[in-house]
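Lecture notes, continued. The same structure-token format from the folding unit now serves as the input rather than the output. Read the line below as a description of shape only.
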């Protein structure tokens, strides 16, 4: 997937996401691409319904020995690294004032291959800490043309 991503122009509004499908003894790799946020949003929604741990396969791939029900535990050691890495980067970008609206937050979600809903805990934490002020809990994919702004306090 990184090869195909490298072929895209810098700052491209084209989104890519991988998914692996196991059928019998065969494993098929799929790279989904969309030039519209709604397309990648729908793909990621289906992918995460198939794989509640990482949204990347319909079988046990790179599971880190984590079961879906363990996701409810708050301990950092049992959280999948994909979600942890996404949350850390999103928080860093927001604290650094590098994201200005919900479209920017959505772009970071899609670049990491996570659903928009995965941004909720970070946005709530920073709002509670008084770092940002916003009027949404989860970025709305239907507002990508006129996104709501993030106000820094």
């Amino acid at each position: 997937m990184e090869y195909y991503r490298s072929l895209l122009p810098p700052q491209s509004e084209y989104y890519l996401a991988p998914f692996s499908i196991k059928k019998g003894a065969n494993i098929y790799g799929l790279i989904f691409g969309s030039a519209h946020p709604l397309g990648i949003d729908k793909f990621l929604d289906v992918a995460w319904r198939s794989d509640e741990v990482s949204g990347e396969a319909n079988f046990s791939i790179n599971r880190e020995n984590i079961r879906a029900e363990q996701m409810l535990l708050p301990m950092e050691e049992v959280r999948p690294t994909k979600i942890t890495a996404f949350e850390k980067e999103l928080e860093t970008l927001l604290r650094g004032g590098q994201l200005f609206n919900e479209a920017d937050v959505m772009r970071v979600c899609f670049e990491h291959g996570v659903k928009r809903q995965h941004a909720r805990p970070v946005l709530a934490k920073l709002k509670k800490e008084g770092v940002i002020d916003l009027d949404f809990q989860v970025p709305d994919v239907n507002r990508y043309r006129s996104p709501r702004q993030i106000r820094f306090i």
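Point for the exam: The radius of gyration is 16 Å.
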